[in-house]
């Protein structure tokens, strides 16, 4: 009864209605069927009207978008026959393995929106109902690092990194039903809530030639492999010489379209089979399974479902690309992330993140601040010049590091003459003002020579700004630190 009420409340919330108002209306009666299993088998005499089909289909599209997104990425990335770079830019690897970059991600990549040039990335996807995976962690010394491990829902499922004091060594990633013995030499076992999982290692690197060289030693030992290949010895891989496969991306088209409306419900069917419901989600699953089954039986119903998916993609999902619709207000025109990578049943922020900036880190690892607008509320545009000034002592308070990144209208990088897309801790030549404050400049045309070190080149057209605070101090976590205004200077 309790779970049924919770699921009903969730459905009502998705529709925008009030639970109180629904409770006061006439009771809903369903003469047939009466169990969740029966609900998944639509009776021949049931004729669902178009409006009802489209209403439930819209809910399903909003709810299932992140997970279909995840499964489609896994299906694509794991086609690689060996660790490689897709289009020469994005790490790809066979199931169970990962691939690593050896430098910042290239600006033309379109695998994921809102990439950063603060870290050396890696990527690997797993199928944990087949076999557990060994995750190898080298000695990173004093360098910030974190392995973000995600389940099918895009929630992080592990605390593995410098913020947690994780030791070098071997960790075992297992599926939800695994009952095997832990081999000797394993530092810890990480249990995924779903058989689908992926890992994105992030290894901090300063923007200096010396650090580009120094980071190569630990990067070579960032690896994953099936448990059957574990021998207790640290392995290494020469990622500097991995092949480039596939076609180069087309940045003008934006991020790869990982969720395609007319294929969505076939892929949602797989999600519903592979990902068990959270407590209270049973009614959601019953509704969506019932809809998918009806669509298989009746081509007209499937047509309505596809039409609803297409419309929802153009409206509800598209609106999540606006930063004002992501997270919560942070002050001075910025929003900040909410429940990042710890979404649970926060379907709003889970779907918003999967559309606008997939694969956030958890709040205790990274906090994100973003805006499309200047301090007066007007859209940021490359035809104007801006500045962002951090008062003395008011840089983002972090134990790790921070950065300010600039994105174009597609939440990607636009190539520029300096090959510069972010500024922050990694830059050792930023110039402070006489009063100890730090001003960063955002403009399409280069500023005066004395400001060049602090300049973020902007593309023509609309743009957005994004602050990352890695391993934030308490003022970051509790929201008492407020980002500075973005000032239009001409």
Automatic annotation (TrEMBL):
Residue ranges annotated for the DUF1214 domain, each copy included: 365-473
Source superkingdom: Bacteria
SUPFAM superfamilies in alphabetical order: VPA0735-like (SSF160935)
InterPro entries in UniProt: DUF1214, DUF1214_C_sf, DUF1254, DUF1254_sf
Signal peptide residues on this chain, from the entry's feature table: 1-23
Domain (DUF1254) ranges: 96-226
Alphabetic keyword roster: Signal
Protein name: DUF1254 domain-containing protein
Organism of origin: Aeromonas lusitana
Taxonomic lineage from the root: Bacteria, Pseudomonadati, Pseudomonadota, Gammaproteobacteria, Aeromonadales
């Amino acid at each position: 009864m309790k779970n049924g009420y919770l699921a009903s409340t969730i459905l009502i919330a998705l529709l925008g209605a009030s639970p109180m108002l629904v409770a006061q209306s006439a009771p809903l009666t369903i003469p047939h069927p009466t169990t969740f299993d029966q609900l998944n088998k639509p009776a021949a005499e049931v004729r669902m009207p178009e409006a009802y089909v489209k209403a439930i289909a819209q809910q399903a599209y909003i709810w299932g978008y992140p997970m279909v997104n995840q499964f489609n990425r896994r299906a694509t990335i794991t086609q690689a026959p060996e660790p490689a770079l897709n289009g020469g830019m994005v790490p790809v690897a066979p199931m169970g393995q990962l691939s690593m970059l050896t430098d910042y991600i290239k600006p033309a990549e379109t695998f994921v929106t809102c990439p950063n040039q603060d870290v050396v990335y890696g990527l690997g996807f797993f199928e944990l109902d087949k076999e557990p995976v060994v995750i190898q962690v080298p000695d990173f010394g004093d360098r910030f690092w974190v392995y973000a491990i995600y389940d099918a829902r895009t929630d992080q499922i592990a605390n593995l990194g410098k913020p947690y004091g994780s030791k070098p060594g071997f960790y075992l990633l297992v599926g939800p039903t695994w009952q095997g013995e832990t081999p000797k030499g394993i530092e810890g076992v990480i249990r995924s809530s779903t058989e689908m999982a992926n890992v994105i290692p992030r290894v901090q690197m300063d923007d200096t030639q010396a650090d580009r060289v120094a980071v190569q030693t630990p990067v070579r030992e960032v690896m994953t492999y099936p448990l059957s290949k574990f021998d207790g010895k640290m392995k290494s891989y020469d990622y500097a010489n991995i092949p480039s496969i596939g076609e180069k991306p087309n940045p003008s088209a934006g991020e790869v379209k990982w969720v395609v409306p007319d294929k969505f419900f076939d892929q949602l069917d797989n999600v519903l089979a592979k990902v068990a419901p959270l407590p209270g989600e049973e009614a959601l699953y019953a509704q969506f399974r019932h809809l998918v089954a009806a669509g298989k039986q009746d081509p007209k119903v499937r047509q309505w479902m596809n039409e609803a998916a297409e419309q929802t993609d153009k409206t509800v999902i598209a609106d999540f690309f606006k930063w004002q619709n992501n997270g919560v207000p942070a002050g001075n025109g910025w929003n900040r992330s909410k429940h990042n990578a710890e979404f649970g049943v926060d379907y709003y922020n889970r779907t918003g993140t999967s559309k606008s900036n997939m694969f956030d880190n958890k709040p205790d690892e990274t906090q994100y601040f973003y805006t499309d607008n200047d301090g007066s509320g007007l859209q940021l545009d490359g035809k104007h010049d801006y500045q962002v000034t951090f008062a003395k002592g008011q840089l983002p308070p972090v134990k790790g590091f921070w950065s300010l990144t600039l994105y174009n209208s597609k939440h990607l990088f636009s190539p520029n003459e300096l090959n510069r897309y972010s500024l922050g801790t990694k830059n050792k030549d930023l110039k402070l003002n006489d009063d100890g404050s730090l001003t960063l400049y955002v403009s399409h045309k280069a500023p005066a020579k004395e400001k060049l070190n602090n300049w973020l080149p902007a593309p023509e057209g609309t743009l957005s700004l994004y602050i990352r605070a890695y391993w934030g101090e308490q003022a970051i976590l509790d929201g008492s630190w407020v980002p500075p205004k973005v000032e239009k200077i001409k």
